[in-house]
Amino acid sequence: MGKIVKVLKVISSLALFVGIWELIVLTGRYEPSLLPSPVKVLEGMGELVKDGTLITHFKVSLSRFITGYTVAAVTGISLGLVLGYNKKVWEFVEPVVQLLRPVSPIAWFPFIVLWFGIGDVPAIIIIFIAGFFPTLLSTVSGVRKVDPAYLNVANNFGIRQPHLLFKIILPAAFPMIANGLHIALGTAWVFLVAGEMVGAQSGLGYLIIDSRNSLRSDLVLAGIIFIGISGLVLDRLIKLLEGYIERQWGVSEGRRN
Amino acid sequence: MYISIEKVSKAFTLKDKSTLTVLDKVDLYIKEGEFICLLGPSGCGKSTLLNLIAGFDTPSTGTIKINGNTVTQPSIDRIVIFQNYGLLPWRNVIKNVELGLEAKKLKRKERRRIAEEYIKLVGLSDYKKHHPPQLSGGMQQRVALARALAVEPKILLMDEPFGALDAMTRMHMQDEIERIWQEKKKTIIFVTHDIEEAVFLADRIVIMTPSPGRVKTIIEVPLPRKRDRTSLDFLKIKDKVFTEFNLK
Ligand SMILES: Nc1ncnc2c1ncn2[C@@H]1O[C@H](COP(=O)(O)OP(=O)(O)O)[C@@H](O)[C@H]1O
Ligand SMILES: [Mg+2]
After folding, report:
1. Is B105 helix (H, G, I), strand (E, B) or coil?
2. Which residue of A has its CA nearest to B53?
């Protein structure tokens, strides 16, 4: 019952949005090239799906995304574990991290192109930069917030490095790391498109730029909608993973008494 | 003597550089297999003393010796059981009990067998696959107990282990720890601020007073086991302890 209501809410919210959009178009005050009608955009979406353009670009984007995000996750978590555990080193590194973190990955673009040329690599590096900082920072703070009681227990039972890291610290910090990975995913997806708009000849971002260049605003909007949907799906997938972790970690379980 | 605590003092340096003396020349000698309760109001240094015996911290002056060897670091021979259980929530019951066994060089199968044996000992065989947050406080403390016993320590150091439990569960757990103590012949140092708990469990009750923490008196409890909490002899000893704390 509750599920049906939820679905109805989502549908009516979207319908209302599309309805207002259509009404604005019907007033005829805006040129179709400036504001294409929902029907036009739907047709555009159909076109992109049918001729395989969408799937081609989507595959390219996704593989860049997976590469950049995975590298960001692995390096962010590994470095985060080391830096979180070594307070002195972290105090030394933190100012630099805090300085670099607020810089938009796009700002690095001139250097990225100079160093790596064009093609897949710039987009991957932009995704990497976007995903790296949230992962690193949440891992560091996750490690530093590990309950000292766990460390005492480990110490008492004679658990030494590297087991201490893998059996105690990593799992204890994991809920926070997973949260960082979630944030990183959203940020990285946003910057994937931005990266592909400035430096690529393929991918969803490129699809939008290409459509603009051929004055197909319906396809631009179609591309935007696809990007939104895939971002949403990715977000839901990582939420499922998070939920699984929370259950496994016993965070959200009901207590018995 | 099995455990010798000789003139042990402990002072902490506070943030404002002043020192706080928490333990002052504590002398205590414990026989092997003895059940000792450290009893005193909160803040009198019971946990501090227990941590020193565990080896989590070192005395400012004085020494703690076990079997003639000075304690300098924690050891798997002395396992501490905390009030908040210290279980790892991401591991299920059996994996929690296996934790200490993993540091010993045992085969997987052997670990499993030992863990199951101790889970059975504490009566949790039906909950092997549960995660700690799914269990009640009493059950969690049983898991912690099984995990401690599984590595076959000679000494159990228990810091208000039943402090978070309701009165009924608490009494069940007292019965349980007494049964296990008799079966496994451990030396137990048990911190509590509950007078009845101390009289029920202890061979000797070490009464501590605060600021700075000192041993005030040691009361022998020569009652046979299992003790009857309502018997006259029991109440007499309880009375004696009350008198020590000027609660009468
Ligand atoms: N690491 C520490 N630094 C400073 N003061 C401490 C520290 N540990 C304990 N104390 C102080 O020592 C006193 C005794 O603490 P504790 O041993 O925990 O008492 P109890 O377990 O009997 O309640 C308290 O006043 C506490 O604030
Ligand atoms: Mg205490």
Report:
1. coil
2. A156
Rounded distance between C-alpha atoms, residue B146 and residue B91, angstroms: 14
Q: pLDDT tens for residues A218-252? A: 889 899 999 999 999 999 998 888 888 777 776 54
pLDDT tier at A71 (50, 70, 90 boundaries)? very high
Q: For residue B14, which atom of ligand 1 is closest to its CA?
A: 4
For the entire predicted model, the pTM comes to: 0.83
Is B133 close to A253, i.e. CB distance below 8 A?
Answer: yes
Measured in Å, how far apart are chain B's first and last C-alpha atoms? 35
Q: Which residues from A are below 8 Å from B137, CB to CB?
A: 257
Token readout for A172 is 């204890």
CA–CA dist A83, A77 (Å, integer) = 10
Alpha-carbon gap, residue B229 to A118, rounded angstroms: 82
| Burial call A195-218: b when 16+ CB within 10 Å, e when fewer | bbbbbbebbbbbbbbbbeeeebbb
Report how far residue B100's alpha carbon sits from residue A81's, in angstroms, rounded to the nearest whole number. 23
CB B75 within 8 A of CB B152: no
Mutate to test the pocket of ligand 1, among B12, B214, B216 (most ligand atoms within 8 A of CB): B12
Asked if B198 contacts B39 with a C-beta cutoff of 8 angstroms, the reply is yes
Is residue B53 within 6 Å of ligand 1 at its C-beta?
no
What is the whole-number distance in angstroms between the Cα of residue B189 and the centre of ligand 2?
13
